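<instruction>
Derive structure tokens from the sequence

<record> Sequence and structure tokens follow
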Amino acid sequence: MSIISVLNPKGGCGKTTISTNLARALHDRGASVLIVDSDPPGSARDWHAANEDNPIELVVLDRPNNVKTLASMAANYDYVVINGAAKLEDMIAAAIKVSDFILIPVQPAPYDIWAASDLVDFIKARQEVTDGVPLAGFVVSRVVEGTRLGGDVRAALDEYALPVFDTTITQRQVYPQTASEGLTVFDADNVKAKAETTALIDEILAMIAPVVREVA
């Protein structure tokens, strides 16, 4: 089993979009997947409820003490994907403690990059006492198609001393359109969206392969 959290204390950076598409991609590869919605507004819950035939199981754990029990509760799944809360330090800290890998989506804007600072500090503090777990990495999300990422964006993220994935997630209408129906880009015909999401999944899996945990 591997627990993947999609975290950033700043709202609007694409956490739910990435979480739901990540979970669906893993499911389509034959894995058993559970989505955990830890965000009080319940965006992942709304996505799940919009499609009564949704193949992904979802639970709500929006209190820190509940998140702490996740590892044992989710032992029968290959992957658990936590859709992280925004601005709730206790929830974010609880997710970090149970995670094997943390994906940090950031928009290519200074405010979003700065907002990740406290989260990186939380992660590094945890890594110091757990032999480097959870692993963590950045993905630049909601990039406007046709624009170039400035080198200063990646340079700013590099200062956090965490990997920055090669893949970027573009701001495409297919993401909200499919989400409104409880679907993902894998249910649509947008080749570019499928390709970038698949590339992100491949990068994540390559990074977390050494830390997939055995659960009795």
